[in-house]
Amino acid sequence: MTGIRILVVDDEPSIREVVSLYLERSGFEPTVVGDGQVALDLIRTDPPELLILDVMLPSVDGYEITRQVRATSSIPVILLTSRKDEIDRILGLELGADDYVVKPFSPRELVSRVKAVLRRTQQSPAQPGGGSPVAVGNMRIDPRTRQVTIEGKEVALTIKEYDLLWMFVSNPHQVFNRTQLLDRVWGIAEYIDASTVTVHVRRLREKIEKDPSNPQHILTVWGVGYRFEPGG
Whole-model pTM above 0.70? Predict the structure, then answer.
């Protein structure tokens, strides 16, 4: 996992310097900038393979950058911020961020999260039946193209949402707690807030369930976690 280009966007020079140093030591190729609009221009002209993004930035804030990135690409995004409130973490995740690191942080922890996000986004999920499409009611999932359709209409899922769905579909009736899902879908459970799973389950239900408030496929097992029921 070397030579991967990472764009680091933070308005604090000391943080840019430290993060860049640790990324270089791990074999990555970081580019650092301190302005949100400059970052957007770079993303459009020379997209990185991963984005480490501060929330509080001059010109354009990190949430807006995340929103714009997610509207056009699946570049992995790790948000870096001093905000600690749960609502801020959830907002970042709902906008499509892959992870959320609160300042002050350990540079080694950040590098571990970078590696975990890259493992998850670069790996090919297991494909039962030789990679043949899987039908679940009126939903069709093609693991070869990672395309999901419901009644013939394509459903736009983020990378994480698809991986989470595929984990459920590949293990019907099995109950997973949030730590297990973090480990299997995100690649690491030690540093990631468990609310990440809650947010993504809710978003996935909104996209694939006929009535998200009364789900028929992704069911909550109270006090434990979630299970997937193919038959609804």
Answer: no
Instruction: Give counts: helices (H), strands (E), the chain.
Output: 9, 11
pLDDT at position 129 is: 41
Q: How much is the pLDDT for 85? A: 65
Q: Residue ranges of the alpha helices (H) in 26-144? A: 36-45, 62-72, 86-94, 107-122, 128-131
Report angle CA 219, 71, 66 to the nearest 5 degrees.
85
| Below-50 pLDDT ranges, the chain | 124-130
Question: Hey, what domains does the chain have and what are their CATH numbers?
Answer: 5-122 (3.40.50.2300), 128-228 (1.10.10.10)
Within 8 A by CB and 6+ apart from 69, the residues are: 43, 51, 75, 77, 96
Rg of the chain, C-alpha, whole Å? 18
CA triplet 99, 3, 5: central angle to 5 degrees? 50
Cis previous bond, 230, omega within 30: no
Query: Rounded distance, CA 93 to CA 23, Å?
Result: 23
